[in-house]
Amino acid sequence: MDFHLTNEQQMLRKMYREFAENEVKPLAEEIDEEERFPMETVEKMAKLGMMGIYFPKEYGGAGGDVLSYAMCVEELAKVCGTTAVIVSAHTSLCCAPIFEHGTEEQKRKYLPDLLSGKKIGAFGLTEPNAGTDASGQQTLAVLEGDHYVLNGSKCFITNGNVADTFVVFAMTDKSKGNHGISAFIVEKDFPGFSTGKHEKKMGIRGSSTCDLIFEDCIVPKENLLGKEGKGFKIAMQTLDGGRIGIAAQALGLGEGAVNEAIKYTQERVQFGKRLSQFQNTQFQLADMHTRMQAAQYLVYAAAMKKQNHEDYSMDASMAKLFAAEAASDVTRRAVQLFGGYGYTREYPVERMMRDAKITEIYEGTSEVQRMVISSRLGVK
Ligand code: CAA
C-alpha cells in the first residue's frame, strides 16, 4: 500500500489541520461542557467543502477522495471528537448511501444540499430492540398507493436533532427476515415524523443523539432507496464505509492525546526533573505513538481500498477495531501521565478519554468487528 500523499492531499491535510486548530479546538471544551451542537462550525466546514469531500462536483461535492475524507475526520478528532463524528455520520451514513444506491433523480434532489452542507444528514437503523442484531427491525413500512406509511422508532441517532435528511430502515415484509428490510430517504418535515429525547452522554457531548419517531409517517414511494428488500445489504455496505470514518475519529483522538501528553510531560517537573526525562514516560509515549501509527496504516489502507473500489469490508472492520481499542488505551494512558491534572477538565485528555470510548461501541461494537473479521476469514 502506497501512502505517499499527492500534492492535493497534502494541501487538504494542511487546510483541515489549520481549520481544526483555529476554528474547532477553541470551542471543544465549551461544547462538551454545555452539550451544545456547534452549528457555527458546521457552517464554516460547509464553506470549505468538508461536508462532501469525496463526492463528485456534479452533485455539489468537493471532488476529493476517501483518504482525504479520513484525514479530515482524523484532524478534527485530534482536537474535538464531537466535530469529527458530525462530519463522519453526515458523510458516511447519509450522503454515501444516497450517492451509492440512489436513483439519478434522488441524487439530484438530495445530494447538492447535503454535500454543500446546507443540510445535515443522519442514519436511522438502530432500534431499542435492534442494536447489534440489526436485522431485528421492528419499524414497519406499508405501501399504500403512492406512498409508504412508516410506524416505529429509532434510537441513538447521531445528528438526529439537527438533521434535515435521514436514511431510514424499516420492514416491508416481516416474513422475509433481513430480506424484508427496505431503506428510505426521509425528510424531517414529512408528516408523522418527529424526533425524541436527546441522550445525555459520557463523551462526544456536543453531538446530537436522539430518538426518531414514526407515527403513520408518510414517505413518498419515490423515496424508497434501492429496491424493496435490499435495505439490510444497503445498511451493511453503508456501515462498512462508516467504520472508516469512526476508525479515523478514533485515530485522531489517540493522536491528539499523544500530542497533549508530549507537550505536558516536557513542562511538568517532579523530583527536580521534567516528566519527559523519566524512562517510564519515554516508554509510555513511544508505545502510545506506535499504536496510533499502526492504527493510521490500517485506516488509510481501508480508505484507499474503498477509493479504488476494492472489497474493503474486512479492512474497515480491522481499522475500526484496532483504532478504537488503541484510542481508548492511549487516551487512558495520557490521563495517567497527567496525574491528578489529567482527571480534571482543565486539560483536554479526560475529554479525549471519554470521547474515545464510544468508538468501541457505535457503528458496530468491537465484538461486531471481530465477528465480521472472523467470518471473512472463513472461521465457523
Ligand atoms: N455488505 C453487503 N452485504 C452484507 C454485508 C456487507 N458488509 N454484511 C452482511 N451482508 C449480507 C450477507 O451477505 C447476508 O446476505 P444473504 O442473507 O443474502 O445471504 C445478509 O447480509 C445477512 O448477513 P449475516 O447473516 O452476516 O447478518 P447477521 O444478521 O448475522 O448480522 C452483523 C451480522 C455483523 C452482526 C450485523 O448485524 C452488524 O453489523 N451489526 C451491527 C450493526 C451496527 O453496526 N449498528 C450501528 C448503527 S449506526 C450507529 O452506530 C449510530 C450512528 O449514528 C453513528
Descriptive account of the structure:
With 380 residues, the chain is of the alpha+beta class. The protein has ten helices and ten strands. The strands form three sheets. Strands 1-4-5-8 form a four-stranded mixed beta sheet. Strand 2 and strand 3 (147-158) form a beta hairpin. Helix 4 (81-101) runs antiparallel to helix 5 and helix 8 packs antiparallel against helix 9. The longest helix is centred in the middle third of the chain and has 37 residues, at 231-267. It is globular, with a radius of gyration of 21 Å. It starts with 6 loop residues before the first helix and ends with a helix. The mean pLDDT is 98. Bound molecules: acetoacetyl-coenzyme A. Acetoacetyl-coenzyme A binds next to helix 4, strand 3, helix 6 and helix 10.
Number of strands: 10
Q: Can you list the ligands bound to this structure?
A: acetoacetyl-coenzyme A
User: What general outline do the C-alpha atoms trace?
Assistant: globular
Question: Major sheet, described briefly?
Answer: 4 strands, mixed
- List the helices and strands in order: HHHHHEEEEEEEEHEEHHHH
Helix content: 40-55%
Based on CA atoms alone, the radius of gyration comes out at 21 Å
Brief synopsis:
Pfam families: Acyl-CoA_dh_1 (PF00441), Acyl-CoA_dh_M (PF02770), Acyl-CoA_dh_N (PF02771). The chain is an alpha+beta fold and 380 residues long.
